[in-house]
Design brief:
This protein is an alpha/beta fold. It has helices spanning 11-22, 41-47, 72-95, 131-141, 172-180, 199-211, 232-243, 253-260, 262-269, 277-281, 291-299, and strands at residues 2-6, 26-31, 38-40, 54-57, 102-108, 119-120, 155-161, 163-165, 185-187, 196-198, 218-222, 249-251, 273-274. The strands form 4 sheets. Strands 3-2-1-4-5-7-11 form a 7-stranded parallel beta sheet, sandwiched between helices. Helix 1 (11-22) packs across helix 6, helix 3 packs parallel to helix 4 (131-141) and helix 7 (232-243) packs parallel to helix 11 (291-299). It is globular and about 60 Å long. The structure holds NADPH dihydro-nicotinamide-adenine-dinucleotide phosphate.
Length: 300
């Protein structure tokens, strides 16, 4: 299969490209910078979609970049890097003479309202709770393709991911050093849900989506099955056990708010209990269904 990946040069994109190539697929990346086996967003806008069977969008400015202040300008960059790249791809798919079979957008479980008690499946409502949930709503809306005679040849799947745990990027490497120095601990109350997925499972799920014989379509929650009950405190204990380091300290909520600003602090101080119901019904099996197995694989 020929697979085109927007933002394929990042943390998830590099692991996904590696897995796709291992499975015999041909990968082309869309980036802001030209290079080998890459095209640019300007190329897609000007020349349209290159011949491909699946398109996946992973482009997005890092929301939790602690070096960037949460200004109006940075918020607009966070939004535009997701919404405009997705719009570019959905418009190119709609214009393509030979449209691809699959169109996959990776968004986030931040779509669902933060709650310590409510459990969310792919059918649960959301999209209007806070900055992140409105972002996911708008991001997913622009991915929608126009119908011809009530049908569309390209099937759209929206993959709502939890925190992706991997060695080479995402949240885990930045969390490791305080734990290694015995300075780790819970964030805020520690009772906030911690929806997560191992990078290998996310990449396998994306392959499962585009390789599925009948296609999947609709929404898939990309979180481990144990995410429905894992909290920040469970994650802290599991990481402390895996690293054999104590984790007595805690970071108070006001410090996170001061450092990151309210919108971003919400992402760390609140969370969603998410169930991968449709994901499991689609026949997907997780290699790492719980924190102990995922952290053992990542840290050993
Ligand atoms: P990365 O930050 O590692 O990579 C994303 C890619 O997006 C970059 O390689 C870059 O490609 C491109 N990009 C960055 N800024 C911009 C911009 N301003 N305009 C256009 N493109 C830009 O992200 P991840 O791989 O971690 O995440 C991929 C997607 O998955 C993101 O949309 C993210 O929101 C989502 N996601 C990630 C989670 C996680 O835990 N990592 C959890 C849930 C969702 P280049 O420099 O080549 O242009």
């Amino acid at each position: 299969m020929r697979v085109l990946i927007g933002g394929g040069n990042g943390f998830i994109g590099q692991s996904l490209s590696q897995l796709l190539r291992k499975r015999g697929h041909k990968v082309t990346i869309i980036s802001r910078k030209p290079g080998e086996q890459r095209i640019t967003w300007v190329d897609v806008t000007k020349k349209g979609l290159p011949p491909c069977d699946a398109v996946i969008n992973l482009a997005g400015e890092n929301v939790l970049n602690p070096l960037k202040r949460w200004t109006e300008q940075f918020k607009q960059e966070v939004i535009a890097s997701r919404v405009e790249t997705t719009r570019t791809l959905s418009e190119a798919i709609a214009r393509a003479e030979n449209p691809p079979r699959s169109w996959v957008l990776v968004t986030g479980v931040g779509y669902y309202p933060p709650s310590q008690t409510q459990q969310y499946t792919e059918d649960s409502p959301g999209g209007d709770a806070d900055f992140l949930s409105r972002l996911v709503r708008d991001w997913e809306n622009v991915a929608q393709l126009p119908l011809t005679d009530g049908k569309c040849v390209t099937q759209l799947t929206k993959v709502r991911s939890g925190v992706v745990l991997g060695r080479t990027g995402g949240a885990l490497p930045t969390m490791l050093w305080p734990f290694r120095l015995c300075l780790g601990g819970i964030v805020g109350s520690g009772r906030q849900p911690f929806p997560w997925i191992h990078i290998d499972d996310l990449c396998r799920l994306l392959c499962h989506t585009i390789e599925h014989e009948k296609g999947i379509g609709g929404i898939l929650n990309a979180v481990s099955p144990s995410s429905a009950s894992d909290t920040n405190s469970d994650f802290t204990q599991a990481l402390s056990k895996a690293l054999r380091r104590p984790a007595f300290l805690f970071t108070p909520g006001f410090a996170v708010q001061l450092l990151l600003g309210n919108d971003r602090a919400t992402m760390l101080l609140e969370g969603q209990r998410v169930v991968p119901e449709r994901t499991l019904q689609s026949g997907f099996t997780f290699l790492y269904p719980d924190l102990d197995s995922a952290l053992a694989a990542l840290l050993n």
